[in-house]
Amino acid sequence: MLSDLPRDVAEDVLIRLPMTSMRAVRFVCKNWNALSKDESFTKKHLAQAKAAAGAREFMTVMVINYRVYLMSINLQGIHNNIEPSINHLGKLVSLTESDRVDISVVYHCDGLLLCITRNIPRFTVWNPYCGQTRLFETIRRPEPRYAIGYENSKSFRSYKVLRFCEPSRGYVRYELYYINSKSPSDIMSIPITIFPDWDIEFYARGVSLKGNTYWFAQENCAGDDGTEIGYQDFLICFDFSKERFGPRLSLPFHSIMEDTVTLSSVRDEQLAVLFQEEDTLHLEIWITTKIEPEAVSWGKKVFLAVNMKPLDDYAFNVTSGSFFVDEEKKVAVVFDIDRGTGMVTGMDCFAYIIGKDGYFKKVDLRDPSEDCSFPLMCSYVPSLVQIERPARGGKRKRDGGNKYKKQIIEYL
Fold first, then answer.
1. What pLDDT digit, counting tens, does each position of 263-283 carry?
2. What region holds the F-box domain (predicted)?
3. What is the separation, in whole angstroms, between the first and last Cα of the chain?
């Protein structure tokens, strides 16, 4: 019987399995389920997985057709005529998740995934490696935006989810959900209303970096006669320790409304910004030398500058053009639909690999067993972060100008 294997033998077997096999392992028997969640084993397993992948293999999570996939990307030999490798490692599902739950977008922070459900006012915080999930129902709001981050303390990290919306221009309301809280009565903060002089578009996806989240933002500037004279553009950060939005942070370029600007993190240490002009298709990627909630500095030279018109005669979509960079190879990988089709066709999800000296390649991301539409990607690094289990069915009422009700419901 598998359950009768000595612990050291079982550990030696299980530690060789890929991370995507852990869900199946936990269903084999109680002993294997317990072993797979043991802290000593999981540390060894994560170290083994990292060593097996190699230093130049990137791991990402991607939403395709409202499902979350784990993918590996290896660019090691692209400048030596070796084809890049992009592999589907599997569909991520939790231990008790129903496949009927549709995910519209996913964000990553410190091994936790923030999954926003489609057409339903709720979100899920999920550690795929540990198999832990916590589902939150929210109040329906117009075009809400989300972010996940943490506050460092002496003993532990306090993880939080930010949810905010802009009911009308210049008026923002936000609230925080406390992931580490064991008590349902302490799960949501009192909503706060602010009147910022900036605007974050509803489709803009924030990027988590060192526990805080950054967005591309703009201000509509008008002259004395009311005519539009241009836009100021900058970064805005939400500081999860201070629980507030920070000041404007400068950018090394100026964009107009039709241009594409999207963000990515680099090893959770630096911020990368992709900027593409809509008319010329000129593309630039800049990387910070310093980034904090209230200060930013940029490299003197652009990380990558490419004229995309001879390579692909369409601009990347601001709503789906997520990306990451490989600093050593001077390469960017942008995930988007095929701009040439102008529509979702079932075969139009691509990774656009763009490098120095004119390197360019399109890789079809479609799983043969699935249709494909609007890939949304973020980098992923597995971790042992634990998600607290609250008491089920708790309720809380808040009065802060409006009445709010909050209820924690069943786990996925």
1. 999 988 899 999 999 899 999
2. 1-45
3. 30
Mapping DSSP to helix (H, G, I), strand (E, B) and coil, where does residue 222 land? strand
Q: Do 58 and 178 fall within a single domain?
A: yes
Same domain, 347 and 371: yes
CB of 347 within 8 A of CB of 372?
yes
Handedness of CA 93, 99, 101, 102 (dihedral sign): positive
Whole-angstrom Cα distance, residue 192 to residue 176?
Answer: 9
- Only one residue has tokens 């397993």, namely 45
Tokens 């959770």 belong to residue? 268
Tally of structural domains, the chain:
2
Contacts of 233 (CB under 8 A, 6+ apart): 216, 217, 218, 219, 251, 254, 255, 261
Global confidence as pTM: 0.82
**Is 3 within the bounds of a domain?**
yes
Domain that holds residue 26: 1-53
Is 412 inside any structural domain?
Answer: no
Quote the CA–CA distance of 343 and 337 in Å, as a whole number: 8
Reading the block at residue 141, the tokens are 């709001």
Q: Are 191 and 175 in contact (CB under 8 A)?
A: yes
Residue 168 Cα to chain centre, angstroms = 26
How confident is the model over 163-212, as pLDDT tens digits?
A: 998 877 778 999 999 988 766 667 888 889 999 989 888 888 899 999 99
> Burial level of 224, CB count in 10 A (0-12/13-18/19+)?
exposed
Rounded Cα distance between 139 and 147, Å, is: 16
Full DSSP string of 276-329: E-TTT-EEEEEEEEEEETTEEEE-SS-SEEEE-TTT-SSPPPTTT-EEEEETTT
Cα 21 from Cα 93, distance rounded (Å): 11
